[in-house]
Amino acid sequence: MSELTKPVKEQESFRQAMGWLHTWGGLVASWVLFTIFLTGTIGVFDEDITHWMNPEAAVVSDFDLASMTEQRVDAIKKGQSYLEVNAPDSHSWAIGMPTETEPGIRLFWRDEQNEFQETLLNLKTGEPMSAAENRETEGGHHFVHMHYEFHAGMAGIWLVGFFTMIMLVALISGIIIHKRIFKDFFTFRQKKGQRSWLDGHNASAVLTLPFQLMIAYTGLVIFLSIYMPAGVLANYSNPQQFFSELLDEPMPRPETGVHADVVDLSVLFQRAEVMLGKSARFMRVEHPGDSSAVTKVFGWFDEEDYYGQLLRDETGSVQFDATNGDVMNVIPPGEYDKGTPMAAQRVMRIMHFANFGGYSVRWLYFVMGMAGALMMATGAILFMVKRRQKSLNEFGSQTARVYRVIEVLNIAAISGLAVACISYFWLNRWIPLDITDRATWEIKGFFYVWLVMLFHSACRPATKAWFEQWSIFTLLALLLPVMNLLTTGHWLASYWQAGDWGSVGFELTVLVFGLMSLGLVLFLRRKMVSQVRQPQLKTRSEAVS
Amino acid sequence: MQLPYPLRINFLVFAATIGGYLFTSAAIIFLSAIVPMDKPDAIVASSLFSFAIYTAAVIWVFVVRDSKRAWLGMLIPTLLLGGAGLLISRMAS
What we know:
The structure holds two protein chains of two kinds. Chain A is α+β, with helices and mostly antiparallel strands. Chain A is about 60% helix and about 5% strand. Chain A folds into three domains: about 1-55 and about 135-235 and about 355-390, no CATH class; about 60-135 and about 250-335, no CATH class; about 395-545, no CATH class. Classes of the chains: A alpha+beta, B mainly alpha.
């Protein structure tokens, strides 16, 4: 670490300081950033993954509620009567129309303890859907949640923001230390150990640099008001006042404690549809049962209608007093008109979510995101490869021990996470359907597998650990379609016949990753064999290089 | 007086993360006071630049590499910008 404080010539010392910042900032953040990138990249296809993970739902998803007024109104009625009986003292309710991946009346509420709850009701009966018609799963949303909050709520959001800032700093310092940025576009020196890792790191970073900068910055901007509250705090004693002025909406009403019944929501829903001149899709009630209750109805929204729009139109909404049906606020559908700064933020959000141009944009983001993950993985491995050849002795007598910890974390964060992700799909098919909190068990399973991988990488020599974990990944990936056929009867050909391209794409992608991993396994095997042959030359070097 | 190396590194890292965040916050307060827009719009517009400002501040700290100069370089502008920003906002309203 001592290079940071050595006195050197001004110019060189600047580059050296940036080199230090890039190396250590990058290393410390690489494990978390790899997790954020891999899960975010998988999450690009969250809907298709959810669909594959809920095979029972596929059978009942054949409807288009946007054009069926009676069914929509009926869904609101069923939703309200369920919530009134089962969640009377909640802080909020929400009722959503079915979607392709969630083919029932979607109910959400924050219960008395402020815990978030949800359930799906059968459209015909108004009863919670059984396991036979809806597999209880987080589906692809699990990856999205890992991506921005690690399933840890506000603490997770701050953690992701913190590491994303390190990513920005590492990108900028990485550009500064890079002397030959254009030449490295075309450089890849194969089978040259450390040079190859460096070239791989540079190529994946430089080729996709604009994307990496964009995705980091727009990601931070999504939580702008959480990460950077200074401007609001300095000018408003009540942040709600700021949001109400900014968005031109009435202030939220505080709970009064005085009881008041919620009126028939389906009537308000219909009135809102007439006022908006379009179908509505979602309805939320704040403080149901209290005299301060307010409800908001949101206009129908189909992603396809907004393709090519980076500044997406308003979908429209109407807000009512939920105790008497008085209109409190109307935002008509149409051009977005909340001012230039908010429009800029909206564009950045939409750019981050990758849902403005269908599958072509999604695949582009998937490839770019994988390149980002590769940049972090190769960076972390490069750090170790460099030091395995010649220890830089940064931590004095503790150096070897610190290197070992870094190596273990590298393996657990990279191949360990890959195994956890693929296991999540196996768990989806293997965990019994009628178990309570099934969706939570799938996610717990994901973390348990990851933890086992961490122990495994701590117990095994590095090259063996890499080899074994990628072998597990290869098996689980290549056998996934077979396992799916055995457990659900679906496979590539049947998906193909049904025109279920999302599931075809999912299984083919898993197979491609399985084959790439197989290549890696064979490479590691050759490595291990050559290490056995020349033990005296490479003492103690459990190299992946 | 020369502090031991790990301690100096820690002071630098804190100057970059905490000092940099304070500086960025002050810069937002100042910018949102002088940007000629309605207050809520001015706040959003200035905040949108915050992560670029923060990045630049962190890089600057590691270029300076002296924890005392780095901390002063963060705190003095923080007080000046923050104070000026608050003052201008109060006077305007």
